[in-house]
Amino acid sequence: MLPAGARLTRRDEFASTIRHGRRAGRSRLVVHLDMASTIDPASQAPPRAGFVVSKAVGNAVVRHRVTRRLRHLVAARLGTLPTGSSLVVRALPPAAAATSAELGADLDSALRSASKKLRGREPAR
């Protein structure tokens, strides 16, 4: 379970992460990773995560199952994300039939790729 302070909850937080973050896609999911631009670099905000699971993935039962699996996987990896970062994980329709191990492998691969892209980016806000 993700602690309340580690969750993205507002629409503008999701939109900002998706718009300004670095994207990495895999067959079952897409991740968007962004570093918050803070005026005070001394503020050490914890990394935060949010999930997007649309109706294309399946009915409500399937969507909630996929979200629970992704939440569990991200909670275990949240400490590896840079301080002040925000992460949006978007599930694709093949995620409905995937095992937790397959989702975890896709998540790890996508996070590595997005982190690499993020490190190569100049802070431009």
Low-pLDDT runs: none
Strand content bin = 15-25%
Number of helices: 3
Kindly, what is the distance between the CA atoms of the first and last residues, rounded to a whole number of angstroms?
32 Å
Alpha-beta classification: alpha+beta
Q: Give the integer mean of the pLDDT values.
A: 89
CA-based shape: globular
Proportion of residues in helical segments: 25-40%
Instruction: Identify the quaternary structure here.
Output: single chain
Q: How many strand segments?
A: 4
Radius of gyration: 14 Å
Give, in spatial order, the strands making up the sheet with the most strands: 1-2-4-3
Order of helices and strands: HEEEHEH
InterPro entries: Ribosomal_Su5_D2-typ_SF, Ribsml_uS5_D2-typ_fold_subgr, RNase_P
Subunit structure: Consists of a catalytic RNA component (M1 or rnpB) and a protein subunit.
Enzyme class: hydrolase
Family: Belongs to the RnpA family.
Can you characterise this structure?
- By secondary structure, the protein is an alpha+beta fold.
- It has three helices and four strands.
- It has helices at residues 11-20, 60-77, 100-119; strands at 22-25, 29-35, 48-53, 85-91.
- A four-stranded mixed beta sheet has the order 1-2-4-3, sandwiched between helices.
- The termini are far apart.
- The model has no long low-confidence stretch (mean pLDDT 89).
